[in-house]
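Provenance

Sequences were taken from public entries as deposited. Structures were produced by running a predictor on each sequence independently, with no templates supplied. The record for Corrinoid protein from Candidatus Gallibacteroides avistercoris is shown for reference.
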Amino acid sequence: MADLNKLFDSIVAGRLEPAIEVTHQIIEEKLDIPSVINNYMIKAMEEIGDRFQNHKAYVPELLMAARAMKGSLELLKPHMKGEKIQSAGKIVIGTVFGDLHDIGKNLVASMFEGCGFEVINLGVNIPNSRFVEIVKQEKPDILCLSALLTTTMVNMKEVINSLKTAGLRNQVKVMVGGAPVNETFAREIGADGYSSNANAAVIKAKELLAIA
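Predicted structure for Corrinoid protein:
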């Protein structure tokens, strides 16, 4: 019988192989997949996120947990028979124009996915017009902008101005993050939120969307 607590523990510990082993059992036993995802897998990512926030886990542990979560999720998806997981919200994330850094952004994207958000990861060096185009097409709840350089963080304000010009600013929350970015800068450019790390990003996103 599938040991769901083992799945939870494996994801928290970032152990892909045992997570995959339990996932195969879940599929064989035809368990309720949305329930497993919501009650064990997402909860496991929230647990490792809390540990990270409290300095009891670090970036490598977060990455390994996200890897175990993704490995399990990829196996489960084909067996969901059209069932739709209740998404916590839709997020578009990308690194602003002129900036090629993506490690931090990808970690944030993985945490969002692990905690039940639908994520569209645009990549790096994204022009303002592309952000506007995607917001128009995808209608995300939150747009997350990343920058690692002081010379490119100014482009975050340009993206926000472009959204205003396109009449889209009131339709999406904007979050910003990255090494040179801080709360004061976020307020100055008119962003809705700032986060200093991946778990803080999830917490801020839930706060902006009023998710308990």
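The chain has a mean pLDDT of 93.
The chain has nine helices and five strands.
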